[in-house]
Amino acid sequence: MAHCGSNQLVCELRQRFWIPKDKALSKKTVRNCVTCKKFNSAPFSYPDMGPLPKERVTQAPLFSHTGVDYMDPTVLLTSGEDEKRYVALYTRLVTRLVHLEVAADLSAKSFLLTFKRFIARRGVP
């Protein structure tokens, strides 16, 4: 009788015992059983996806629609001294292609240097 359906549970119980309202009791028992809930649960279904933005579906040159973000600092050990370096993350919005550039700090000057290197390698977005 271990973790069976409610109908099988009723049949097994009726062979040995007489229980009033046994069908309702067996349904309630199976419904409240944690193991049966896990075993009989429906698989996860992903929600319906909304429409994609125009920039994601139209054909365009590489990195024409670009997002930029900074990652947490990475600590480098150079000549016995710890140095923090940041990573500028340039992402192409259409295909999620990633381009990484190292920045010395979080200043605007450092960002502009990474942006110039990005433009030199990938072209103007």
UniProtKB/TrEMBL annotation:
InterPro entries: Integrase_H2C2 (IPR041588), RNaseH_sf (IPR036397)
Pfam families to which the protein is assigned, alphabetical: Integrase_H2C2 (PF17921)
Top-level taxon of the source organism: Eukaryota
Name of the featured protein: Integrase zinc-binding domain-containing protein
GO molecular function: nucleic acid binding
Domain Integrase zinc-binding, first and last residues per copy: 2-41
